[in-house]
Each structure stands twice: as C-alpha cells, then as structure tokens.
Amino acid sequence: SRGQIFAVQLNPEADFPFQSASELTVEDEEASDQDEADRGEADIPFVGISERLFQVPVGSGDFDSLAANDKNLFVLSNGDTSKLQKVSFTPNAPKLSDYASNVRQFELSADGETIFVRTGRGDNAKFLLLPANKDFPSDTSNNAVRLSDWTLRIDPKQEWRQLVLDAWRLHRDFAYDPNLRGVDWDAVKARYVPLRDRIGHRSEVDDLLKQMSAELGILHSQIRSGDEPEDVESGQPSFLGATYTVRANGLEIASIYRGEPDRPSTLGPLQQPGIDVRVGDILLKVDGIDIRTPRDLSDALMMKAGEEVLLELRRGRETIQEIVTPRTLWSTRPLHYIDWVEGNRDRVAEASGNQVGYLHMRAMGAFDAAAFARDFFEHFDKDGLIIDVRGNSGGNIDSIILSTLLREAWAYWRNPSHGDAYTNMQQTFRGHLAVLINEGTYSDGETFAAGIKALDLGLTIGTQTAGAGIWLSDRNGLADGGQARVAEYAQYGADGRWLVEGRGVSPDVEIINLPRATYEGGDAQLDYALSYLSDKIASEPIPELIPRPLPPLGENGQDID
Prior knowledge:
alpha+beta; five-stranded parallel beta sheet; 11 helices; 23% helix
C-alpha cells in the first residue's frame, strides 16, 4: 500500500521546515537558541488543528516508522527490500534519498545526533550506531554494536512471575467488558498469581495463564507460548508426501498427495518436475537401505529433510532410481490439505457436470484473500458455488469476501461475433450459493458465515460453529515473546444484538459428518450441498442474458427505470 507524508503544525507559531522563506518571515534567533530544557511542556491548541496540515513535498511510497531531528526527516520505505531513506529540511526541491538498505529497524537518539540502524536478520543481522546527520559510512566496523560482548542474566522464576502478573494486568485493562463479566478480578489475582512460585517449566506458565484467563469465559482469548526450550538434538523426521501399502518386497505407493499443477510451490517431493514416481511403484531402498516396513522408511528418512535422497523403486519388472528431497512434518501438512481440497474440487465438478464450483478457505488472512481471488474467479460464471469454511481458523477479510458476493449485475455487453455476454459488474457471481460450516469454523470464519445468513446470500449447511466472536488487536505481548491474547472488541448486529460469542452460528440445515463414514471418505455435508444446489439450479435456473431486438435506425436507447 502506498501513502504520502504529512506534518501537523502543533504550535501555530512554528514554521513548516520545508516552507520557503518570504519577506514576512522573521527568524527569532533568541527563540532558536533557547535551551531545550527551558521550554517546558508544550501547550498544543487543538482548535483548528485540522487546518494546520502540511504535505511533505516528496513522492508517495510504502512508508513506515517516521523520525526527525533538526536537519533531516527519516522514513523506513518498504518494497522488495526495506530501506531507510532521508530528506533534508530545505524548501529547494527536497528529495528522498537512500540512506541504508536492508534495514529492519531504526531509531533516533533523544538529542537527534545518533541513529540506531538494524540491518539484515537472523545470523546476518547487524546493529549500528551512526551519526544521524552524516552519510551512511562505507565501513561500519567502528559503528557496530558487538552483541558477542553482551551477557544477559535472566532468572526464569522472576521472568515467569512477571509474565503471570502482566497477563493479569492485560486482561484487566484491555478486555472488551470493563466490568470483566462481573468477575472479581482482584480475587482472581489473589488466587492465581501466587501459583507462579510453583512453576518449574515455561510450558506450565501457559497452563496457569490459560486457567486464569478462562475465569472470564471468553472463547476468543488465547495464550501463545513464548521462549520455550528447544530440542535440536533428537531426530527430526521427514516425509515424501505419499501413503503406502506393505508388500512382500517393499512399500507400494498407494497415493501421492496432489498439489495444484499450475502452482509448483504446492507440489510435494514426488511431484516435482522431472521426477517420475507413480502410484503403484514399489519402494525398495532409500540411499541403499532396504525398505520393508513403514518403520524402515521412517528411519531411513530421519534427519533428511531438505537433503537429496536416492530412491530405488520397482515398476513392473523394471527397477528405476529417482533423487528427491524430503520435507519436514511442518511443510508436509499443506500437502495433506491441498490433496483434500483437490479431491473435493474433482468430486463437485464430476457430480455436477461442472455446473457447480468449489473452493475452501482455510483461514481469513492475506494469503487466504489471494487464494479466494484465485479460486473464486475460476467459478464466478457457474450456476452454483460451494464455499467451504469448515475448519477455518479466522483472520479479518470477511468483508472483502462478502462484498464480492454482494455485487449484482444490472447491465451487460455482447459482441455478436463472440456470442458470450459479460456484465458491467465484471465477474459477478449470479448463481446459487451454499456455505459449509462446522464446529471448527472459528473467529472471522464465523463472522463470514453470520454475514451469509444476515445478508441472505446463500444456504449454510453443517454444524454449529465454535462461538469465538469477540475480535482482538494482538497488541498483548509478553516479555519473552509469548502472548496473552485479550478479546477486546465485542461484536453486535446492526440492531444491537450480541453476536456469535459463546454461541456460534447455527446452520440453516444441520448435517453431521459421522466419524466412521468420514474416515472411509464420506462427506455428508458436501453431498447435501451438491444435492441442494442441483435442485436449486433445476427449479430456479439462472436467467440467461438474452438481448431484445436492436431498435431501428434513429431510435434511441431506453432510460433506466
């Protein structure tokens, strides 16, 4: 997102630093030389402050983290790589110039003479202290802060005590209900905070914080772990993105998790371009180690994530070899998910004769907005659409999706040589909609489902959602990087009704996916959505866009009623 830089004149007598001098401008030398300490607190007149807005005369950009001293304005500019830029206070064509590249953070000292700059990240991060009014030096060795010289002593017991007390304060000060749901929060402090002295591990801090915050009965407050000890020496498993059946001479590849062919980043180790591994192949060896059982495969792939391994496979009477790169458990999970989505897409397309589209939204974040755009506009011209938000973990883009579904076509164009009509509200969905929800539909996924019902956009099918309706800002961090998320913003309907929290969204049609049937590949909720849309399309077909005869020469078009 691009923006511009503006300045507000807090003191009506102060000069805008980029303003050209005029014959009426009188510089008060005595005031300019006045000691900072003698000025006292500023008395800002807020009346008329909106009329004292100046625009800094530089171009627009993706700016962040402004700071200024008496000579320069500094701003962090985001892009392909973040960089620190500065502009000198001058009325003569001021221009942003690059000060330093790959900057993650900066800050000016209180006197404005020194600037702290952090470049790079991780092991490549550098921390520099530089003269603010000079150019960035070519050699920063004398400006680097040597963190290797620092020794920080942290007493875990003292830190854990601080975390518990801070979490208690955060809930007291930020919870959406100032009365804290009638709970005696001081009594909660007296009961829970002393237990911090019995904690022996960081994970137990989370247990205590969860029990304490649960006293408020808010479903949308969570505890996120912070500085946990890590085990980097135990074995880390890796995976090929497939399922197997035990055979006498090895493991038969029963299935390979499908990715999206037009998105190579979603393809698993056995689907990469140039790799010829197929369902039905018998996996015989990994790096020369015989594979007879799943345990053999697990042992052979231990600690191999990100490294090339040699597979030996049998296909009929032929023995083949392929070099592949296994993945960690974390990066294999998306393969399971994408394979499930692709299966649902194929199932819907086949059952409906491609009349109905299907898309699943895993969450409601920036990545999911891109996924929605990619998937929705593939199906906008179909007679029916299933939007699946089962297991949706939330976010904050429900308004974007709902506004897309609210668009209505009111006119269209048609070229006789092409035949197809296209509406002026381009790519508007005109068909019938079904939305799948379940107990795993959470947070903004629930707000989306509630919007579907309130705006009468389609039929909701499935089971009642989780009931986490109060929104958060994620500003409730703890000292060690953990978080005591506090639900801050209660949600109401336009008529003032209390929504979602503690209750969830009830489906228009309740359909339960029974565990055994689901395990065996069934999906009663999806089947019902397909049946509903099939009947709906048959009974209420989408009106065709058929133009009336063209008016004779000399007659004008008609006005809109």
